[in-house]
Amino acid sequence: xxxxxxxxxxxxxxxxxxxxxxxxxxxxxxxxxxxxxxxxxxxxxxxxxxxxxxxxxxxxxxxxxxxxxxxxxxxxxxxxxxxxxxxxxxxxxxxxxxxxxxxxxxxxxxxxxxxxxxxxxxxxxxxxxxxxxxxxxxxxxxxxxxxxxxxxxxxxxxxxxxxxxxxxxxxxxxxxxxxxxxxxxxxxxxxxxxxxxxxxxxxxxxxxxxxxxxxxxxxxxxxxxxxxxxxxxxxxxxx
Length: 239
Prior knowledge:
DNA polymerase, domain 1; 6-stranded parallel β-sheet; alpha/beta; 6 strands; Rossmann fold
């Protein structure tokens, strides 16, 4: 029976495409709005693909951030200047300062707190950057800071099962009693299942299951409204 729920951060607890689109529109106003969602998905793909290079030191963090937007735009035959690409990260960082929780998420977290459900957060990324997002979203209202794990702070990244095991210790709960909710199949679904957790794939970007993988998750959720409905309905929890 599920006793605790742990969330991913980026594009799970807030809509990451909004600040991304804001930065793109500011810097590259001629980029087609109709292709914005597809561009964002490619941006996330390259971000996940090359993130470990910035951890191992093969690439600097600045190079990884530069390459993920350059490669994503190149997939759409959009080739800005080097200086424009270098400016993107600052514009994106600025837009991220204005992120807010969707009402469906804040309502769900409030409900879970009222039900005394233990909550946690596991996110990949640099410590300062992720802490800034956590602060902007005011997540400490619902999740205790010691129950929030940032990969760079502990030296373990999703999908490594060890980062999920660390959360088990912090929540004092067994893996079979924990549910993880995240948008990345590679990092969230595969990682949590490898740690023997239950998983809901929050696939609101309508991504395809990666080639060679199968539907190993307990639920696939396509929008914030359905996520709220499931989180506030105890009958929907795996037993």
